[in-house]
Amino acid sequence: QVQLQESGPGLVKPSETLSLTCSVSGGSITSYYWSWIRQPPGQGLEWIGSIYYSGSTNYNPSLRSRVTISLDTSKNQFSLRLSSVTAADTAVYYCARHTDDDLTRPFDYWGQGTLVTVSS
Amino acid sequence: DIVMTQSPDSLAVSLGERATINCKSSQSVLYSSNNKNYLTWYQQKPGQPPKLLIYWASTRESGVPDRFSGSGSGTDFTLTISSLQAEDVAVYYCQQYYSIPFTFGPGTKVDIK
Known about the structure:
The structure holds 2 protein chains of 2 kinds. By secondary structure, chain A is mainly beta. Helices cover 0% and strands 51% of the residues of chain A. Chain A is globular. In chain B, strands 2, 6, 7, 8, 11, 12 and 13 form a 7-stranded mixed β-sheet that branches. In chain B, strands 1-3-10-9 form a 4-stranded antiparallel β-sheet, with no helix packed on it. Chains A and B meet through strand 10 of A and strand 7 and strand 12 of B.
């Protein structure tokens, strides 16, 4: 059974960089596409971006200038960095797996999510 | 971007009754080369991540009860819960995976009447 677990600071100061890691167990990261998705408190879902094991990335244009997604195959992890954060970036951040070895697929496995609050 | 809308925003249904949620995309998510609709439905309960229910607009994910069904094509889609159970209380989201950026509907909250 594939499991994903997000980790990282729960509090980030405005203008700083948010950094999260998703650890994957029960399956290899060297297949499938992997994504980050966020959900502001009480609001809907926003796709941030995705990565393939080859290192190929795709980002939401609304965040592209501030987002970097990377992966570490030796640790079976992938990571998110979001720079110059503001209060609008406060959200629960989820990592998720696409259902297939194809970017245009839904998400079948999700982490439990981690709340990141942007505040001084 | 493909904009996803859902209706209603919320609904309350008696136990055992039918619940119907609509989802509309601002452009077609039907890929002509394979005749598949790149549309999925998720269920999210409080404090939990979304759970995949339906993909390709009408294919039920393994383990999902058959009271959940999806229909529609092109730009108009429906999620139906044929006989609402207490454990179905949740927010339901549609999502298109036809093109980047992948986008979600705003969600429909389902409660017991």
